Amino acid sequence: RDMENVTAGRSDSEKVIEIMKKEGGRINQKDLRGHFSLSEAKMSLLISELEAKGRLKKIKKGRGNILVLKD
Q1: For residue 14, what pLDDT is reported?
Q2: Measuring CA to CA, which residue among 4, 8, 31, 9 is closest to residue 20?
Q3: What DSSP element (H or E) covers 33?
Q4: What residues pair up with 67 in beta bridges, in sequence order?
Q5: What is residue 42's three-state secondary structure?
Q6: Distance between CA 36 and CA 10 in Å, rounded?
Q7: pLDDT, position 10
Q8: What tens digit of pLDDT does each residue of 34-55 get?
Q9: Residue 33: partners with Cβ closer than 8 Å, 6 or more residues away
Q10: Measured between alpha carbons, how far is 11 from 24 in angstroms, rounded to an integer?
Q11: Measured between alpha carbons, how far is 59 from 42 in angstroms, rounded to an integer?
Q12: Which of 9, 13, 21, 60 to pair with 29, CA 20 to 30 A apart?
């Protein structure tokens, strides 16, 4: 949980972007959720907001999603 210290004081949206940058711009939605103490529904909402803003792209993969950072 040392990731939380790095991203302290930022909004959840900024944390998502920050973590994704550290992961090389791609992350599995389930893995991303491991960095947060958010419910699955809240995480999904947060990702949808970021996608609507054009910050990331969600790719369906099986029963999960791969998230890709957009430039």
Answers
A1: 93
A2: 31
A3: helix 29-33
A4: 27, 58
A5: helix
A6: 13
A7: 74
A8: 999 999 999 999 999 999 999 9
A9: 40, 43
A10: 20
A11: 18
A12: 9
pTM for the model: 0.81
End-to-end C-alpha distance for the chain, whole angstroms: 27
Reading the block at residue 5, the tokens are: 């210290």
Question: Which token pair is 32?
Answer: 């991303």
C-alpha 63/C-alpha 24 separation (Å) is: 22
CA atoms within 13 A on the CB side of 7: 19
The CA distances from residue 20 to 31, 41, 49, 52, in Å, are 10, 19, 15, 17
Burial 15-38 (b: 16+ CB within 10 A, else e): bbbebbeeeeeebebeebbebbee
Helices then strands, each counted (H, E), the chain: 4, 3
